[in-house]
């Protein structure tokens, strides 16, 4: 059985509705709507199926409320990091540590502007937009944890088909800033 079919069975057992995947036109509309270019692995997955349920984002729902909600979820990790900037331990790879909190906020904001954009996947799990296959990150405030080597692997971890401790962290692609140990 393919991994995708195995995952679909788990979704159904957990009462997660599965709709037909997004069409090329729908994906292009979403990219325009959210000012994003979805990575290949996101397109590959969501063009095959669209899971809808608690903590999943309904990419097909074009209601004003849903669009606004998803836009806010796109911004949440950036806002969380800036809200907690005083708690962030400075990482030497970011350059010289600012001497005051205002300069620290400015520098962290600058790093965030250069950081990979994040696509909400499920709850506070995000897929960084990168040219290579990216890990899925769990981001809550400045608590950032790798939750899967890639999108499909993440779903296996999230829904109990794989344990997080079994992630092959040595093979996980590093996501600058987001995986630079902020705490």
Topology:
Elements: H1 3-13, E1 17-20, H2 24-34, H3 40-46, E2 49-52, H4 64-83, H5 101-114, E3 118-122, E4 125-128, E5 136-140, E6 143-148, H6 151-158
Antiparallel strand pairs: 1-2, 3-4, 4-5, 5-6
Organism: Streptococcus cuniculi
InterPro entries: Knr4/Smi1-like_sf (IPR037883)
Protein name: SMI1/KNR4 family protein
Key traits:
single chain, 183 residues, alpha+beta, SMI1/KNR4-like, 4-stranded antiparallel beta sheet, two-stranded antiparallel ribbon, 6 helices, 6 strands, globular, SMI1/KNR4 family protein, Knr4/Smi1-like_sf
Structural account:
The chain is α+β, with helices and mostly antiparallel strands and about 180 residues long. The protein is globular, with a radius of gyration of 17 Å. A hairpin with a 2-residue loop joins strand 5 and strand 6. It is built from 6 helices and 6 strands, in the order H-E-H-H-E-H-H-E-E-E-E-H. It has a single domain, classed as 3-Layer(aba) Sandwich (SMI1/KNR4-like), CATH 3.40.1580. About 40% of the residues lie in helices and about 15% in strands.
Task: Give the overall pLDDT as a whole number.
Answer: 95
% residues in beta strands: 15-25%
Strand order of the largest sheet: 3-4-5-6
The quaternary state of the protein chains shown equals single chain
CATH architecture: 3-Layer(aba) Sandwich
How do the SSEs run, as a string of H and E?
HEHHEHHEEEEH
């Amino acid at each position: 059985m393919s991994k995708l079919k195995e995952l679909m069975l788990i979704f159904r057992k957990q009462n997660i509705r599965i709709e037909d995947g997004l069409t090329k036109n729908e994906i292009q509309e979403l990219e325009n709507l959210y000012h994003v270019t979805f990575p290949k692995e996101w397109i590959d997955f969501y063009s095959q199926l669209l899971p809808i349920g608690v903590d999943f984002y309904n990419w097909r729902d074009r209601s004003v409320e849903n669009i606004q909600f998803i836009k806010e979820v796109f911004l949440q990790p950036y806002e969380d990091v800036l809200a907690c900037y005083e708690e962030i331990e400075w990482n030497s790879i970011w350059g010289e540590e600012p001497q005051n909190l205002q300069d620290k906020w400015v520098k962290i904001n600058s790093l965030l502007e250069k950081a990979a954009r994040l696509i909400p996947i499920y709850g506070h799990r995000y897929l960084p937009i990168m040219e290579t296959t990216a890990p899925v990150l769990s981001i809550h405030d400045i608590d950032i944890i790798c939750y899967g080597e890639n999108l499909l692997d993440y779903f296996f971890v999230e829904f109990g088909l794989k344990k997080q401790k079994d992630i092959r962290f040595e093979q996980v692609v590093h996501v600058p800033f987001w995986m630079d140990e902020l705490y």
